[in-house]
């Protein structure tokens, strides 16, 4: 995937994950959360023997949203303890 598609993919996944987790960090953070969430989701899925992000498709999109939700939960947990 090209860089532009990664940004769009990350923005959409981050925006949906932010809506699920009821966080409002802004568009730029949604993009970052979505891209890092996609990486994290792919990494988590590899532990279950499944493929990670394989392109711009529904499966990859759901994995990216899952990873972004996990990322937001981890950040919230760290902020509470710090």
Protein architecture, described:
The protein is an all-alpha fold. It has one domain. The chain is built from three helices and no strands. Helix 1 packs across helix 2 and helix 2 (27-47) crosses helix 3 (58-81). It is globular, with a radius of gyration of 12 Å. The mean pLDDT is 86.
Fold topology:
Blueprint: H1 3-21, H2 27-47, H3 58-81
Summarize the structure.
Helix content is 78%, strand content 0%. With 82 residues, the chain is mostly helical.
- How would you classify the helix and strand content by structural class? mainly alpha
- Tally of DSSP helical segments: 3
Sheet with most strands: none
Domain count, please report it: 1
Query: Based on DSSP secondary structure assignment, what is the total number of beta strands?
Result: 0
Strand fraction: under 5%
Calculate Rg over CA atoms.
12 Å
Question: Main attributes?
Answer:
mainly alpha; single chain; 82 residues; 78% helix; 3 helices; 0% strand
């Amino acid at each position: 995937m090209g860089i532009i598609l990664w940004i769009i993919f990350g923005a959409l996944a981050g925006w949906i994950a932010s809506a699920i987790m009821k966080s409002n960090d802004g568009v730029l953070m949604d993009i970052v959360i979505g891209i890092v969430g996609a990486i994290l989701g792919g990494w988590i899925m590899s532990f279950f023997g499944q493929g990670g992000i394989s392109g711009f498709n529904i499966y990859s999109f759901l994995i990216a949203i899952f990873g972004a939700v996990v990322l937001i939960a981890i950040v919230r947990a760290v902020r509470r303890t710090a």
